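User:
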Amino acid sequence: MKIKRIELYNIGPYVNKNEFEITINKNKNMVLIGGKNGAGKTTFFKAIKTCLYGCKVWGFDAPGKEYFRIINSLVNMKTQYDNSSKAYIELDLFFNDGKQKNFYTLHREWLKEKKSIIENFNILKNGEKLQDDELLDFNNYLQLLIPPDMFNFYFFDGESIADFFLGNDGKNFKNAFLKLYGLDTISLMVENFERNFKKRDGKNSAYDDYISSKTKLEECEKKYNITKDELKNFENLLDINQVKIQALQKNYEKEGGISLEDWKNLNGEIIKEESLRDGLSRWLKDIANNYLPFIILKKEMNNLSHRLVEEEESLKSSFVRELVKRTDFLDRLSKFLNKTDITADKIVKIICDSVSENDNKPSIFDLSVNQIKKLQTQIDEKNEFDVKSVLNACKEIKSSLNRSKKLRDKLAKSTIDSFGDFVDEKNKIERSIMELSLTIERKKSEVLSLEQDLLNYRLSFEKNKQKYEEQLKSKSINEMSARAIAVYTLLEDKLIRQQSQLLQEEFKKCFSSIINKDNFIDGIVVDKNINIIPYKLVDVDYSHIQNYLDIDASTKFLELFDTKYLNDINQLRLSKVENIKLPSAISAPFSQGERQVFIMSLYLALLKTSRKDIPFFIDTPFARIDSNHRSKIVSQFFLGLKNQIFILSTDEEIIGSYKEQIDKKISNKFMLKINGYGQTTILKDTYFGE
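Assistant: Predicted structure:
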């Protein structure tokens, strides 16, 4: 099956009619579609699968409310508000089964009538409209060729392919493995025979228990996966809201927005600085009035101080002279000296002579001794004043002015006009974060509870399965359904092993051609439950072979390789060789890049060994792939696929040398150009840089 033409009318950003006309060429199987994020690359893929399968690709048996809600989000925004609008997707498909070549045109259209949506679907075969029976046959054939739940397998999204491929406890890979190789039919036959066996033996309690436990396990697994997906979605929403609140804060601050408290603090700091300067200015003014004149006249002040000392001495001398000349003093002194030859007059003369040195200096200030002391104290205070404190005060005023300028500049660049709106939006997001946090905690508890339930259901299922298998073995060989179950189960196991072997060999080729590392892994093996197990070959000598075989896990793992290594083990035991290489399962996790190369190699191996001619879509091909591996991905992965390939690329991926590698395989090029109104235009025969 190949796509010849895709027409989109009012789908996503594709307003009105938009067409991709594609050339079908066996030697040129690649269609390169370039576009920046948001240009409509993902919508392009959604449109194709919706046109092919309608509601079934979205998990619905029939069109309903939820399906039309998806359609409403798929159609162009412009038409959502037009009560008489229409949108459609049209595909031209080319089928060549080796005998006949046929062209089919699939047209799926949606008409909006008031609040309702009506879907119409028609198919033309070589220009003639199919009737109801023919339409049903084609739909059945299409779903047999590629079931709706497998269509996502053919859409390689580099960002999420690893999660899709290995997620859901490996069920996605198992589903792809069975359906790509056509082995799912056998599983359906086994299920039908099991139902028939149940009808033949209505009292088969072991079977009832087995089916009941299997149903409960499947229901629990489904609920567990849904809950895990819900938890992941809520965690993603929480991350988005946290990014939103950071962006809101950043944008608010970028526009000069500050909080009311910060606004008040800035004004308070400015007032504080002004108050500081006012106090210092008043202090300097007082200094200027009370100290500056004395600082200027410091020399004169010192002379005055010296003169005051002399004046004080003179006053003291004068006081002594007057004291000793007083009559009462002389009378007391005479009485004291009556017993000696010394007269009072001589004593007075001696005292007066000793203090008369300053008598000749006239009094200038006419001050008392107390007044002189008080004045002397004031002079000492003025002389002891620290002049540096004035300089420090001036420096502090200058620093305060600089601080005030910075505060005023910051205040001038700030605003609180939109503070209310900012707080409201922030509170709204914070409430959402709080609600999401509570929901996440509740979901985590549910997941933990379901994990325990899942464990219990698995134990119960394995127990009932074992009982049922034991009962099946004891059933009479004449039971046709039991024989059929046994035969087809063995056949299924054999076919799975055969296809697994093909896949394992092809994987080795693909992986070794892409990976740049040596000594990484030596291959993969697929067990009976279709689980992928990577392994490395390890050296084992005679002294270690028994230890290797005694480990239960190693022995069981070795059984997956049939008898491949038995001869080597015998050769070692007989001492015919010194050492051999035996497989050892790898349980350590890969890095993101290694995991991506591993998945791409597995993907390529599946497609090559299944040989189904289905269009293949590649989006974000280089996600998590380092530059060392990109060239090999192009040469081995892209050029290794024979299907029709649609490559959806941004301007950072299939460019330069990577594009040159695939140029000869490109049948058509398109550019998706989006304008300022969110509308996409398709530019034919052009690409980035052209």
